[in-house]
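Researcher: Please generate the 3D structure of the following complex. Treat every line as part of one assembly.
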Amino acid sequence: MSSPTIDIRYVARLARLALTDNEIERFGAQLSDLLAHVEALADLDLETVPATAQVIESRNVARDDAVAPGLDREVVLSQAPQRQGPFFRVPRILAEDR
Amino acid sequence: MRDGIFTTAAEIARAVNAREVSAREIVDATLAQIERVEPQVGAYLTVLPELARARADELDRRIAAGASFPLAGVPLAVKDNLCLTGTRTTAASKILEHWIAPYTATAVQRCLDAGAIPVGKANLDEFAMGSSCENSALGVTRNPYDLERVPGGSSGGSAAAVAAYEAALALGSDTGGSIREPAAFCNLVGFKPTYGRVSRYGLIAFASSLDQIGPLARTVEDCALAYEAIAGHDPRDSTSIARPVESAVGALRDDLRGLRIGIVREFATDRLAPEIDAVYRAAYDELAALGADVTEVELPTADYGLATYYLIAPAECSSNLARFDGVRYGLRVDGADVTEMYEHTRAAGFGPEVKRRILIGTHALSSGYYDAYYVRAQKARTRIAQDFARAFERCDLIACPAASSPAFRFAAKSDPYSMYLMDYYTIPMSLAGLPALSVPCGWVTPSDGDRPMPMGLQLTAPPFAEALLLSAAHAYERATRHAVRHAPAVASPAA
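Model: Done. Output below.
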């Protein structure tokens, strides 16, 4: 297994988490410590072992493609942080053409 | 009815069905108890007096008209990561602090259909990540047996509510021990059924391949009643299993004759504190005295459970919690662009433990690390499940500790890894998807305290052997009566 280091700034960016300098330092140390503990798995011979896909065997389930009512639109939109008419309002995601 | 609310869920249901007491009287007495002890215990994030009274009145009308219900009038605490339509459902997180659930979880609905009355939404570690309830962003819950100690977690509010008679039954969720450990800490029976036995529809997801809903109650019989109510296939959860549910209540028995119970060699308790070792040795002797054939079994990879779990659970958590992005519901904190809005929302909305798990999970799933961490952990998981299958060739049930210590004092586990170790005995069963429960097995007075604190014996069964598991636990509980030796520090009938 790879050495137990973690690039906290990079991972935080992937996870869309803004971290303070204090958090970067604290979490960096704590997560390196945890990764050192999980290194123990390197002791197991797992070469021929299949990875668990499901722990209790079950078959793929496909429900009937029947039309049924979903949540009412107003109920859903009533909890939007910001709405505009029948839409969720979000910050601009594309820059304006110049 | 002699003991009012200071009795079991089964006795309340019997008395309400027999019209010896009304559901309304039970609910009013429970709400009075909540008012009395909640300032000390803090089990609930939201109390639901209007809803509880309205549902009790409705139930009383139906019972007067001749209907009867398996959980008639049973006051129910619902862990606040389970949706109940029209009520605030927070997962004890700032990111959902003001969110109103627009639908009801299947397990909750089935309890209501069985006559239970929801009295409140119980505190938990944020998004069920923790073992003490100290990771709640919205409230502090104290152990009713010693208010200086934690109730356990993550279903700590559920456990404290039942222990303090603020409910007769609670629903919790268990991902790595979150029902069993708080049940052990609060002198209750806590039961995690086989993965897939209970629908997860309406449970706010933490680690979907591990999460399972189950009851916490004062007796095994109460857990069996609740289990019968909530178990079974649900088309709204494609991982719920279409397989008939055996009657658990009907199978309860009074001895263990003919049962082979395995004691795990790798879980030898002589490395624990001597007084705790003594509790578990005595418990294994009690199993033998009840007629069980107690034999040693091996789980060679069980020791790797913690490492396996702390890769798989955070990986699934990082994926599940990606949905909290400030767009459709919950908290939003503005930023200069949409990415900054996501980053600020999640920074303000999640607490430190949730952030740690998101980070570790994101790392474990990221390019270049996926095989070394996530795939390796899923292979180790296979080995752990194979170990259990091999052990169950030699025994019918496995007995081991539910936790390595009784409830600890607040802030005693400030280092994250020391908190993770609390789940050492419960995680392997979760990884293998097995049904397991904790039943009271003795008392220990910790060296840093002066009140006796309860300990729990964990029993584990093969997949779908819930009825056998509950019947054995019932026999043990009946014969030993550990739970009734001491009353809580608050809230006892005489208090």
